[in-house]
Amino acid sequence: MQHERTIPRLFLLVITAMAILLVSSCYKDKGNYIYKVPAAPVVTGLDSTYNVYVGDSLVIKPVVSLPGSGAQLTYLWTIHVPPVNPGDTNLVYSGRELHIVFGLGPKQFTARYTITNMDNGMKYFRDFRINGETAFSTGTTVLTNENGVAMLSFIKPDDSVQPRIYEAVNPGEALPGDPNQLLAVPVAYQTPIASYWVFGKSGINTGVQIDANTFKKIKYLSDNYFDAPDTMLQPERIFVNPLGVITGVINGILFSGTTSTWNMAPTYGMFGQGATGDYKLSPEIVFNYTGTFGPGNYIGFDLIKKQFVRFNLYGAVTYFGPNYNVIGNAFDAKHIDMTLVHLQQINGGLCYAYFRAEHDSLFELEFNAEFNGPFQITAMQKRPFARPELITDTTKWQATQNGIIYFTYQDKIYRYNPTNQDFKILDADFGGKQVTMIKVIDQNTLLAGVDGSLYYLDIKTGNYGNIIKQISGLPGKVTDVAIRRE
Asked: Which residues of 395-419 are buried (b: 16+ CB within 10 A; e: fewer)?
């Protein structure tokens, strides 16, 4: 029995000793390996972004060096083409330099330069971007009214004017008559402008969509319906939302382009039947997006029931009418026995509304709309407008986010601060011409249009509309503008 107990102990000692030696050997072996990373090629002359006009040559000539090595290198260029149409594939070119005629569209493309060391199989990558451009990728598109006919002109970055461009590109085609709005529509989920919509009050077609890069006609407003109504379409106030579709008041009904399909599908952005309900909307409506991709809400005025109504965008636009709470007793948002002249959004749901009452008196209503829950309107103030004689049927309105309102009266522009009811005439002199358009393009600059000219006015703090520059040579009265900074 004693001998049987001795063998396991001896065996245990041997195993332990071997384990110690093994661990010791492994520990010492850690320092015996030397790793040598192959030298990477040095690339110069390859930028992060290339801007190229469609149809022009794109030449990229990087310098590649691999110091201290005679390794054989190969080169590959890959331009990634999004699969928009069947059969779309990436473009691949070989060679140290890239020499191609850029035939892709006026979009942004990602690209990769791949260097392969054939001696060891190592690959090295440099990513960059290519921005396809046209002559209209940067500049200002101007809508004018020339004797009742819409005209489109383009102001280049050097301020030179290319007038009547739509007629030159689309022979025999006509834009809407009595134009009232120009909208720049971005690519869905992105910022580049893909198209323009021109709207008017008369003509065979009261709305036309135009390619922003070529100014070629895409379709008429009636083509944007799944089932267009038989009556003449009267676009009254249209907006663009970040999803790249138009939405707004047409024939007193609120429509919103569908976004329930792929944004490259031909039906994306088309109109259905509009928001169903018992109402007739005023063109005076404001639109507020609660986030980059919605949902959004609308504040409108029912011309029949004389009340503010709400709509929400839950995929499709939905009519809720007067289904909201009224906070405060300055006025009753659901019973306003006056005619709406203008509804001005300041920031978010903060708005001013101007109403005409009996004997041509004018009232200013201030309210805040919370339409994202709880649904309510806070009636903040109702008072007579201090200068009613300045407001006419041709008055144009704009506002900055800090609550300053600008409006036109004949050949002048007024700066109005509703907080203290302060009125100031801007310094700009338009030579006696009636101001036909104003537009805030940032919080420091106001655009003003007259017959034949566009003015840039300085409205930053401490300035009262002095002229920064004037661009002339535009055919007709300036009606609207869209600026493209790509």
From this structure: bbbbbbeeebbbbbbeebbbbbebe
Q: What pLDDT does 32 receive?
A: 59
DSSP symbol at 242: T
Backbone angles phi, psi at 89, to 5 degrees: -135, 160
- Residue 350 parent element (H or E): strand 350-356
- pLDDT value for 34: 67
| Cα dihedral: 424, 430, 432, 434 (round 10) | -80
* 283, 306 contact by CB (below 8 A): no
Chain-centroid distance of CA 162 in Å reads: 24
Contact yes or no for 133/54 (Cβ under 8 A): yes
Structural contact between residues 354 and 361, judged by C-beta atoms closer than 8 angstroms: no
Q: What residue ranges of the chain have pLDDT lower than 70?
A: 1-35, 69, 83-88, 290-295, 486
Residues for the chain: how many in total?
A: 486
From residue 92, alpha-carbon distances to 52, 74, 105 in Å are 18, 13, 17
pTM, two decimals, is 0.81
- Residue 148 φ then ψ, to 5°: 85, -5
Pairing of strands 207-211, 193-202: antiparallel
β-bridge pairing 123-133 and 49-53:
parallel
The per-residue pLDDT for 486 is 66
Let me know: does 325 contact 374? Beta carbons within 8 Å: yes
- Please name which of 461, 463, 434, 460 lies closest in space to residue 448, comparing C-alpha atoms: 434
CB-CB contact of 259 with 246 (8 Å):
no
Q: Following DSSP, what letter does each residue of 41-64 receive, concatenated?
A: PEEES--SEEEEETTSEEEE--EE
Which residue matches tokens 């020499």?
A: 99
Contact indicator for 416, 397 with CB cutoff of 8 Å: no
> Cα separation of 397 and 24, whole Å?
85
β-bridge partners, 182 = 198
Picking from 203, 287, 205, the residue whose alpha carbon sits closest to that of residue 248 is: 287
Provide DSSP, 78-117: EE-----STT---EEEESSSEEEE--S-SSEEEEEEEEEE
* DSSP-assigned states of every residue in 368-384: EEE-SSS-EEEEEEEEE
Residue 22's SS3 state is helix
DSSP element (H, E) containing 6: helix 2-29
DSSP-derived secondary structure for 180-235 = EEEEEEEPTTS-SEEEEEEEEEESS-SEEEEETTT--EEEEGGGGBSS--SSPP-E
Rounded CA separation 254/13 (Å):
90
Closest CA to 466 of 448, 441, 478: 448
At 108 the pLDDT is 85
